[in-house]
Design the sequence.
């Protein structure tokens, strides 16, 4: 296919997206293609064309046309993509206890909310189309355990 602007940053990003097997793309994956502003403009165009979805700051997910209607959807479910994004960002996490129990077949209750227990610091939201990842921060548990072991009195509702 003959393209008018083969050297454009947008075209180079599109070519790289076809080679990526991952469904989550970070801005740093594309940093060698141009300066920050050029990449920002190209990513905005791709988001507008519905080829990518911006799910967090500098985190993008690939999209595809829906089989059911003329809308575009994410390549995978939002929960799977959010967990892949956390892995790509280097955050340490694990599924909530109810999900662990369900996966080990200890309960038949299906976990609906899909909360994530963060084991490292992360100060960003991952969201798309009204769906948001809910975090349970593990360090609160350590604070509560420390306060109870030292015998200090505290109000659980005012922590965190």
Sequence:
């Amino acid at each position: 296919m003959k393209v008018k602007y083969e050297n454009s940053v947008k075209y180079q990003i599109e070519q790289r997206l076809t080679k990526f097997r991952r469904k989550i793309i970070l801005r740093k994956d594309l940093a060698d293609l141009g300066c920050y502003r050029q990449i920002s403009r190209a990513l905005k165009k791709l988001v507008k064309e519905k080829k990518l979805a911006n799910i967090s700051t500098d985190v993008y997910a690939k999209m595809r046309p829906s089989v059911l209607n003329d809308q575009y959807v994410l390549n995978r479910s939002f929960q799977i993509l959010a967990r892949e994004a956390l892995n790509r960002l280097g955050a340490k996490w694990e599924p909530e206890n109810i999900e662990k129990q369900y996966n080990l077949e200890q309960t038949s209750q299906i976990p609906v909310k899909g909360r994530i227990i963060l084991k490292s610091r992360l100060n960003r939201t991952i969201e798309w189309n009204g769906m948001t990842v809910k975090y349970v921060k593990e360090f609160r548990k350590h604070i509560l355990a420390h306060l109870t072991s030292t015998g200090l009195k505290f109000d659980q509702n005012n922590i965190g």
In short: The beta strands are 24-26, 52-56, 59-65, 72-74, 93-95, 116-118, 127-128, 131-132, 135-137. Residues 36-48 form the longest helix (13 residues). The chain has a mean pLDDT of 81.
